[in-house]
Design goal:
Elements (H helix, E strand, L loop, with lengths): L2 H16 L9 E6 L9 H13 L5 E3 L12 H12 L5 E3 L16 H12 L14 E3 L9 E9 L2 E5 L4 H4 L5 H25 L6 E5 L13 H14 L3 E5 L6 E3 L13 E5 L5 E9 L7 E10 L2
Parallel strand pairs: 1-2, 2-3, 6-7, 7-8, 8-10
Antiparallel strand pairs: 1-11, 4-5, 5-6, 9-10, 11-12
Helix pairs in contact: 3-4, 6-7
Length: 309
Amino acid sequence: MSSVFLRVFCVSLCLGGCAAPAASPDSFTFAIIGDAPYKSREEPHFERMMERIDREDVAFTIHVGDIGAGGVACSDAYYEKRLRQFERSRAPLIYTPGDNEWTDCRGARFDPLERLARLRRVFFDDEYSLGRAKLRTEVQQDRAAECGAYPENRAWSRSGVRFVTINVPGSNNNMGVDARSDAEAKCRDEANRRWVERAVAASEGPQTRALVIAMQANPWYTTRKVYGPTLATIENAARKLRKPVLLVHGDTHNYRVDMPFADALGAPLANLTRVETYGSPIVGWVKVTVDPADPKLFGFAPHIQGVVP
């Protein structure tokens, strides 16, 4: 065997031995977007971002709310505009409301609760996702007395990973303004708790690998304790499930992946990770890879489409 051939053979053997393990046949990817577009100058970037996501092999896209700037994203015409845009998505698109399209509408002389009711009629009128390819989702059907329905809360599964959305908006969760809003928030927090607990109960068997919870608010971005019930619901889910739990949110417009929940000794809860997607003035998205062959299960790849001053 010549020395040149030997070197080539050894290098090939090393590369073969050092190659990353093949992805599981159950692996898939999904996209996270939110908090954009806020300005008219962001619209072209947002359109190109949606076109880019369409070219990716994503199973679905999750929009974590804030479909426009506060005060602007409140009209029926604006809702219909975003609906048409979301319906053009190649992959299924699941949306959960943000504060800009309902709680913050009181600043534009709208009634936030009337706007939430209208959002439900426009975006959540059946059990299917938005987008050209429809994903059939579970819809929260249970309701407490005097609290109404929560058709925006959805659930679905893919390759042993269960996904749920809960309606948790920014701007202090619609609390601290008046008694009517406080009562609405209390009802919604309770509905969210029931929906997550239902998902946890359905995820305890070996057929479920992980739970993903998507919402709009960054629950740490306030000095008030308005998100205490939500944080407790998520933490209790991770403690009870003892499987990977991923919290997905937007609101503060900073891409990050970290572990902000801690145990009694201050150590991070090892099975609970948080990812936040980009937001205005950055128009961007996060591609999440779910690979059962990867010990970490979730992988994150941020993508910036544009930055608009």
